[in-house]
Amino acid sequence: METELLWESLLPLLPHNRTVCRGILGHRVATQGSGPCEEGEFDEFLDACGIGVHVLSNDGTPPAVVIFGREEWQEADVDALWARTEGEGVRVYSQEMVLASMAIGVDLYEISNGEITDLMHNFIIGHAALERFFYVEPDSAVNTVNFPDTVSVAPKSDRKLVVNLDTGHWPSSGVLGALGYRVGRNGLPQSERRTILAEVLTVELVAGSPAANEYIKQWGEPDSVRRLQKMINSIAAFARNARRRTGDFSEAIADWESDLQWLRSSYG
Question: Which residue segment(s) compose the domain that 258 sits in?
Answer without folding.
Answer: 160-267
